[in-house]
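Contributing new complexes? Match this layout with iron/sulfur cluster.
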Amino acid sequence: MNAPTKPPKADVEIVTLGCRLNAYESEAMRALAGEAGLNDAVIFNTCAVTGEAVRQARQAIRRARRERPDAEIIVTGCAAQIDPQSFADMPEVSRVIGNAEKMRAESFAPGHERVQVADIMGVRETASHLIDGFHERTRAYIQVQNGCDHRCTFCIIPYGRGNSRSSPAGEVVEQVRRLAANGVPEVVLTGVDLTSWGHDLPGQPQLGSLVARILKLVPELRMLRLSSIDSAEMDDQLFELVTQHDRIAPHLHLSLQHGDDLILKRMKRRHSRAQAIALCERLKTARPEIALGADFIAGFPTETEEHFASTLSIIEAAHLAYVHAFPYSPRPGTPAARMPQNERHVIKARAARLRAAGEAALARHLSAWVGREADALIERDGMGRLSDFTTVRCDVVAAPTQRLRFTHHDGAHLIGVAA
Ligand code: SF4
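Output block (do not edit by hand):
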């Protein structure tokens, strides 16, 4: 019997690595590449947040070249923006395009220079591009802010994304309206440093005012969600809306990074342990059903066992339902990479312990849902999420939203049956 033939690869394939901002931009690039008449190509939208992310991009590029020997291979995203020559030197690569250039159709037109990467620090505008939906998804990410003015000592992102800049509120509202009109039930506002939205706009509005405007002007939108925010920069109006408005998802992902004040200082973060815990307390008091998650780095330079214990203990102190644990990865050119480093095995072991502590927090969160009912937004194949972003598995693949009763959990997902 002949082996089933693999479906032919899409003419222009986009491989997205990294964050939701990249996911949004890949959606926009799909349309821009079409406009430019690009075909038979693979576009890599890369990430540079860790050395591992860059290594994975190279590996995927080599694989793509083997699988599609005649296709044009275009590399863009933060890894290409920060070190374009290292990709241009790869024989597998046809072209390298910068983070600003990738949002312009003409960059994908044939006959361009092999390397088109301008200085990202010179970019002043967000290049928003209206999208109609999100490839195969019921949830759409939209970029409202790009770049970052902070310089956390471990972070390479500002060198890939440039300084902070905001999409004008009118454009954002138009984008949300278009998605809601196309039946997208949920929109996620994303950015590199989301809470700095508006600082570069006339009158310096804050993120809370943008959220208020979206909720008022797009009443047909079922749910608005925020992607990761900086706990030190949550404005009062935003706090009010997140804790009081039922069309704002009861879920916040916080960029906490560490639980110890000395290490937070060495990271050049803008909050203290006490401030992070106090904010989470206020959020849970004002909206008890809100689910809080956070990013943490394990093994930051000079971190001792005692400092690390502070990160483990903040998970319960801040009522966190889950944790994203990142082993520290020295990024060339960042101040932290020049600090005294922890041994690799120490970093890995702490990251594993942090992940285990996060899994224990998630199991507590999931157990609290067992026996209860809720509406889930079904993404695909019986997989979905609750409004507090809890992942669910169910054997019903009905309309995007499905009422479920939760019988048990498998440590990562709630298991639900039709209620
Ligand atoms: S706030 Fe800090 S961690 Fe976040 S992107 Fe900016 S420099 Fe990086």
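Reviewers usually confirm one structural detail per submission. For this one: The CA atoms of residues 170 and 282 lie 31 Å apart.
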